[in-house]
Write a structure and sequence with these properties.
Arc Repressor Mutant, subunit A, two-stranded antiparallel ribbon, elongated, 2 domains, 2 strands
């Protein structure tokens, strides 16, 4: 079964690359690798993930000006748009599309400081 664009999710490895691209707004494969901690992934590994991300519609590439065969990769979806999509899916899948149930879950299972609770209450009031 082929999934539509709205249902496509990023794997952990794909998310790592997207985080690099979201922070920079366009990079070559070598520049992406430079952002990784040691041990750095192989060029071929990153190139494979860039091809997958392109095929999934998350990134686009263009030839670098004066760069010969070098390509620059840029995100086609913002971090905020992807986060919104994933959170809506989490709310729908795990909490019956109920924001109240989702917030209740996090309130019960996460350590929330008094300061954070006050901040959250202020956001809700607005």
């Amino acid at each position: 079964m082929k999934r539509n664009d709205e249902e496509r999710q990023l794997t952990k490895a794909e998310m790592e690359i997207m985080n690099v691209l979201w922070n920079a707004k366009g990079m070559t494969t070598h520049e992406i690798i430079e952002e990784y901690p040691e041990p750095k992934p192989a060029y071929s590994t990153i190139a494979t993930f860039l091809k997958i991300l392109t095929n999934k519609g998350f990134i686009a590439s263009r030839k670098q000006e004066g760069g010969g065969k070098t390509f620059v990769f840029s995100p086609l979806i913002s971090r905020e748009a992807y986060t919104n999509r994933v959170m809506k899916e989490v709310k729908s899948t795990f909490f019956g599309n109920s924001l109240k149930s989702m917030l209740s879950y996090f309130a019960q299972h996460e350590e929330v400081s008094e300061e954070d609770l006050q901040e959250i209450m202020e956001m809700i009031k607005k």
